[in-house]
Amino acid sequence: MPSAGRGTTGSTGLSAPKSSKGKLEKADALAAEAARRLGIDALVAGDAPNADAIFGHIENCEKFIEAERFDRPDDEFVSMALEIVDELIEYSTSEPQLAAATHWLAEQAPARPKSGRAVRDPVSTLALLTLIYIANIGLARYRGEKDHEPLWVKIDKRVDKLK
User: Fold this and answer.
1) How far is CA 50 from CA 18, 30, 46, 97, 136, in A?
2) What is the share, in percent, of the chain residues with pLDDT greater than 90?
3) In this structure, what DSSP letter does residue 63 have?
4) What is the largest CA-CA distance in the chain?
5) Which of 14, 16, 67, 145 could form a disulfide with 23 if both were Cys (CB 3.0 to 4.6 A apart)?
């Protein structure tokens, strides 16, 4: 599976309402649907056996970013977290699921004038959407837990920049 790449931040390129709140809600809805189509939602569900480990890996990315000095910490976090998401997609998504998710994504995004394609790298875009989903679920899951919530608030702020 192609890597989502290092230093990839910015808009997903998918169409969204003009208002900031509407744009965030649209990105969150697309992220949830992408995770569902890829089978990632089942891996991070409340009682899924590996959910805590998955969230722990994402938290470790944030802890590493906090401990080191980076010129672009948001980009570094996204790069590290996307490596984890790429592995989750590789592990949990069958080829037919990935093909169907890629087709679904193409239906969601406007075609680019030059190439006529909706998304240049659909697997990377699906990984970005999945990271948004995991951040949303992690923030909700650990709300009120003093050892986790501060990390997830920071993760959520970093990932919100992707929307």
Assistant:
1) 37, 23, 10, 20, 17
2) 68
3) H
4) 49
5) 16
User: With b meaning 16 or more CB within 10 Å and e meaning fewer, what string describes 39-52?
Assistant: bbbebbeeeeeebe
What are the residues whose beta carbons fall under 8 Å from the beta carbon of 91, sequence distance 6 or more? none
Identify the CA nearest to 163 among candidates 15, 7, 53: 15
- Which of 91, 61, 56 lies closest to 78 in space, CA to CA? 61
Share of the chain above pLDDT 70, in %: 85
In degrees rounded to 5, what are phi and psi of residue 108?
-85, -25
**Given the structure tokens 């965030």, which residue do they identify?**
24
